[in-house]
């Protein structure tokens, strides 16, 4: 796993939390939810290949 992915996830987390707080305080809670949801989706799309590789390695390890 690359170290840069951890920094990318952290940056997205900070950006999403700041944007969500700004939108919530301005009364736009629906947009704050959409920002949070889109941040979650972006991070999941980055992590899914690593999870797939992990399960593939475990399958090869136990020869299933």
Automatic annotation (TrEMBL):
Which residues does UniProt call coiled coil? Answer: none
The record's InterPro entries line, in alphabetical order, gives:
Spore_III_AC, Spore_III_AC/AD
What Pfam families has UniProt attached to this entry?
SpoIIIAC
Its domain of life reads Bacteria
For the keyword Transmembrane helix, the answer is yes
Q: Which UniProt keywords apply?
A: Membrane, Transmembrane, Transmembrane helix
The answer, when asked if Transmembrane helix is one of the entry's keywords, is: yes
Q: Which residues cross the membrane?
A: 6-23, 32-52
Q: Which NCBIfam families has this protein been placed in?
A: spore_III_AC
| Protein name, entry field | Stage III sporulation protein AC/AD protein family protein
């Amino acid at each position: 796993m690359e170290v840069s992915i951890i920094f990318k996830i952290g940056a997205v987390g900070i950006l999403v939390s700041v944007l969500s707080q700004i939108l919530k305080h301005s009364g736009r809670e629906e947009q704050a939810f959409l920002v949070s949801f889109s941040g979650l989706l972006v991070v999941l799309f980055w992590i899914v290949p690593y999870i797939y590789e992990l399960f593939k390695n475990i399958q090869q390890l136990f020869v299933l």
